[in-house]
Amino acid sequence: MSEAQNERDSYFCVHLLGKANSRRAAHAVPTVRSLWLDEDEGSYPLIAPEPTAVVRSSEDRRHLYWRLTRAISVEWAVLLNRRIATWVGGDTGKSGLTTVLRAPATANFKRHPKVDVVSGKLTGAGPWEPEVIDQAVPELAKEEPESRGPYDGPALEVEECLEGVEVFGEAPDELGKKWAVLCP
Question: How far apart are CA 73 and CA 87, in angstroms?
Fold first, then answer.
């Protein structure tokens, strides 16, 4: 409460972490029981599975959550979150495990001096079978890998950079020279 009086925003990590004071994805608990979306300027369609909870982070921004019937792998959850965000034009950067979002009953000082009270409501929808969400949300478009030709920039003296690094040898590469090294 004292931090809010000092006009400081309050956030929570949407996923459990197994190590205190660390928001590294490597410390994420391996399964989740919900999905999330920072809708941002996107628009979640009415024909899609209804979120279990809606948090209004300001008068025109929302965070949506779907409770699942069972735990799923964090990898699948992140992929589903990214697919949902891409589909609705939301913030794809908030689909990861260490995402922080606003909690209900806190204040949003982002547009100071205007202060938004963050509100939340349970919709009564769900819990959802993960497969239902998976089938309802479009797949991500396949990105074609960028085709690059051989390096045509200035000559680089890479050998100097490799001093003090364990080099296993040259690796085959049709675009130029490549070395296999032990990552420092």
Answer: 21
